[in-house]
Write a structure and sequence with these properties.
Elements (H helix, E strand, L loop, with lengths): L2 E5 L4 H13 L2 E8 L6 H13 L3 E6 L2 H5 L29 H16 L3 E3 L15 H15 L4 E3 L7 H10 L3 H7 L16 H15 L1 H12 L3
Parallel strand pairs: 1-2, 1-4, 2-3, 4-5
């Protein structure tokens, strides 16, 4: 019996990870975090999608203490969500410091409890907003620390780490769930399901990726299969 835990926000990336995990593991448990986020409509979306896709279980954890500590435009209504700025080299105000450190650690504790072998997260450093806790180096370092601290080899999987957004859309299409991911997930920082507000960085990355995939489906799919070792 193989088990995995998916860190699940109900967005494009984590939903694509869930879809693939369901094909690879006997049991897939989802864990979603309520940290008082501005776009907390994602929690309801995550609940609906976990049920619809057939996850073995779905846990929603209250971690609103993160909201008290982490100052971000996603945790403070007084800080506006910035529009996408391709020329900015600074970490955007949407970065929630410590979020992935906390989420992955708690997901690993849950994995330990249910005897899951893997924690799956949809972080990526190819097409991303410049968040330091989405980098491969960070995930591997935390994975090492967590495995040492629990005396158990709980594997952190990052299936999207080296995919661009077009290839992530291709992965959803590979598993025949492109329309579901496009219409029913919530990626937008302003909490708008589907194609979103069209102005925030999350929406920009998502839309550009979709446009790139739809413009060259066969080419992008070929790239995906080579990168992800898919038949």
């Amino acid at each position: 019996m193989t088990r995995a835990v998916v860190v699940f926000s109900g967005g494009q990336d984590s939903t694509t990870c869930l879809i693939q995990a369901l094909a690879h593991y006997d049991e897939v448990h989802c864990i979603t975090f309520d940290y008082g986020q501005r776009h907390r409509a994602e929690i309801h979306v995550a609940q609906e999608l976990a049920k619809k896709l057939g996850a073995s279980a779905h846990k929603v954890l209250d971690v609103t203490m993160l909201n008290e500590l982490a100052i971000s435009s996603l945790t403070r209504d007084s800080i506006p969500v910035p529009h996408y700025d391709p020329d900015s080299s600074e970490i955007p105000s949407t970065f929630v410091p410590g979020r992935n450190i906390l989420f992955l650690t708690l997901a690993a504790i849950y994995a330990w409890q249910i005897q899951a072998e893997a924690v799956i997260t949809g972080v990526c450093e190819t097409d991303f907003s410049g968040y330091p806790d989405c980098r491969d180096e960070f995930v591997k370092a935390l994975n090492h620390a967590v495995s040492l601290g629990m005396a158990r080899d709980i594997r952190f999987e990052t299936p999207l780490m080296w995919l661009n957004k077009a290839e992530t859309w291709a992965l959803a299409d590979y598993w025949e769930k492109l329309d579901l991911v496009r219409n029913e997930t919530l990626t937008c920082y302003n909490g708008i399901q589907g194609d979103g507000c069209g102005e925030c960085a999350a929406c920009h990355l998502r839309a550009n990726g979709l446009q790139g995939y739809l413009a060259d489906k066969s080419g992008v799919m070929a790239q995906l299969k080579q990168k992800a070792n898919l038949p």
